[in-house]
Amino acid sequence: MPHFMTLPRHIQEGEKLHPEATGELSAILNQLGLAAKVISLEVNKAGLVDILGFTGDSNVHGEQVKKLDIFAHDIMIKAMDHGGHFCVMASEEEEDIIHIPAHHKIGKYVLLFDPLDGSSNIDVNVSIGTIFSVYKRISKDGKPGTLEDCLQEGYKQVAAGYIVYGSSTILVYTAGHGVHGFTLDPAFGEFLLSHPNMKIPEKGRIYSINEGNYKYWDNGLKKYIKYLQDADNRGVKPYTSRYIGSMVADVHRNLIYGGIYMYPADKRSPNGKLRLMYECNPMAFIIEAAGGRAIDGNQRILEVKPTSLHQRIPIFIGSKDDVDMVEKFLKEDVDFSKSHTTVKVH
Ligand code: AHG
Ligand code: MN
Ligand code: MN
User: How many Å lie between the centroid of ligand 1 and the Cα of residue 118?
Assistant: First the structure.
């Protein structure tokens, strides 16, 4: 691995291997990297607003003090709407699709994003992130993009990625040729390749789920969690429970260590909580590209036909063997006759 492989250089070198590439996707990823740096800087200042006395509606510069998720939303739009690459965008923070301003060139790509994921963690210095998803438009070139451009199945993504603002800032992306992670060097302000060609372990030992919702779960899921906790009955170590409450950070950790992240449907939320278009699809695209799986309980997340911009969907995502196993439990299709377990499903 060459030293100092920056994000722009990595994207450029990847492009050389694909002579058909026009360079547009590279430009998009570079712009996203820039937006990530700006958001990262602001995230690192979170909390200083109070200390420095900017508690009113405006800061020392006379600018409005914005909530961090709205700040991130605005930065993403500002960084991405004028490059001439997109025909339409959509964000968690905006009800409708976002059009490209009339005076900017209209491009052939579509961008969906969750500007700040894990917003309940902002005020308590816990990891948060940004998630993005890129498609090619399906409507006619040259015209403004449409809702249909945004509502494409996840397997049609051309690129997806996320940024975690954690103990350091890391950007992970795939454009269909491997999953690559870049850590932001705060001194140089550059993303440097730190995790080339990431692969999720086939099986993990971590499960991540909000267990406070236990009593609302279906029986299959309750039994699966018990099965993980009772692993020592089968002569293996019990699983470890880890739940940050920022999906992007939970999935990132599980991508590295192996394991499963779940946000299921339950009796109160029949469609789960997370959003298909800018949370589940991009994370599923990345995890599949790294060798894992992502399902909604019935089918592959990436094959779900979207019906609306902000639709919710249950998700089980992570190491292949772990997702295979939860799928069996959800379908109440587990045969324990050959294993030493206390769990009886039938
Ligand atoms: P967001 O901050 O973008 O609204 O998303 C929050 C999501 C997700 O990141 C996280 O895993 C989940 O909500 C946490 O939900 P619970 O608090 O219900 O566990
Ligand atoms: Mn989110
Ligand atoms: Mn969000």
Answer: 5
Nearest ligand to residue 249 Cα? 1
Least Cα distance to 154 among 13, 331, 286, 8 occurs for 286
Which pLDDT tens digit goes with each residue over 104-142?
Answer: 999 999 999 999 999 889 888 899 999 999 999 999 998
Q: In terms of pTM, does the model score above 0.90?
A: yes
Q: Are strands 179-185 and 159-165 parallel, antiparallel or unpaired?
A: unpaired
Do residues 202 and 322 make contact, with C-beta atoms less than 8 angstroms apart?
A: no
Q: Which atom of ligand 1 is nearest to 274's Cα?
A: 7
pLDDT tens digits for range 282-320: 999 999 999 999 999 999 999 999 999 999 999 999 999
Q: Where are the domains of the chain?
A: 7-195, 206-342
Pocket flag, ligand 1, residue 84 (CB < 6 Å): no
- Which amino acid does the sequence have at 194? S
How far apart (Å, rounded) are the C-alpha atoms in residues 7 and 26? 10
User: Residues near 242 by Cβ (< 8 Å), separated by ≥ 6?
Assistant: 206, 207, 208, 250, 253, 259
206-342 CATH pick, 3.90.700.10, 3.40.50.300, 3.40.190.80, 3.40.50.1010: 3.40.190.80
Does any ligand 1 atom lie closer than 6 A to the CB of residue 242?
Answer: no
Give the CATH architecture of domain 7-195: 2-Layer Sandwich (3.30)
Q: Please tell me if the CB atom of residue 69 comes closer than 6 angstroms to any atom of ligand 1.
A: no
| N-to-C CA span, the chain | 52
Spell out a b/e string for 40-56, using b for 16 or more CB atoms within 10 Å of the CB, else e: bebbeebeeeeeeeeee
| Number of C-beta neighbours around residue 317 at 10 A | 31
Which of ligand 1's atoms lies nearest the C-alpha of 210? 19
149 lines ligand 1 (CB under 6 A): no
